[in-house]
Write a structure and sequence with these properties.
By secondary structure, this protein is an all-alpha fold. It has a domain of 47 residues. Helices cover 75% and strands 0% of the residues.
Length: 73
């Protein structure tokens, strides 16, 4: 008996991608979504022992956060 596909959060992300046009005028919302997705991707990378890729993604997260902090000062 074949197992059904688990309810994967990536499926939910794919469904929400159609909503991106709603966030084009809301950069804060778009930035928050991007940050959440990058952090989730980092967890997946760490789970499969992809330390180098995870490290690169962490630098991207740090850069995004630094940009936001510098922009609000």
């Amino acid at each position: 008996m074949a197992k059904s596909a688990p309810n994967c959060s990536l499926n939910n992300v794919a469904l929400r991608m159609g909503d991106m046009e709603l966030y084009e005028k809301e950069p804060t919302v778009t930035r928050a979504m991007a940050l959440a997705l990058m952090r989730q991707a980092q967890e997946y990378l760490l789970a499969i022992k992809e330390e180098e890729a995870s490290s690169h993604l962490q630098r991207a997260v740090d850069t995004l956060l630094k940009t936001k902090t510098a922009g609000s000062a």
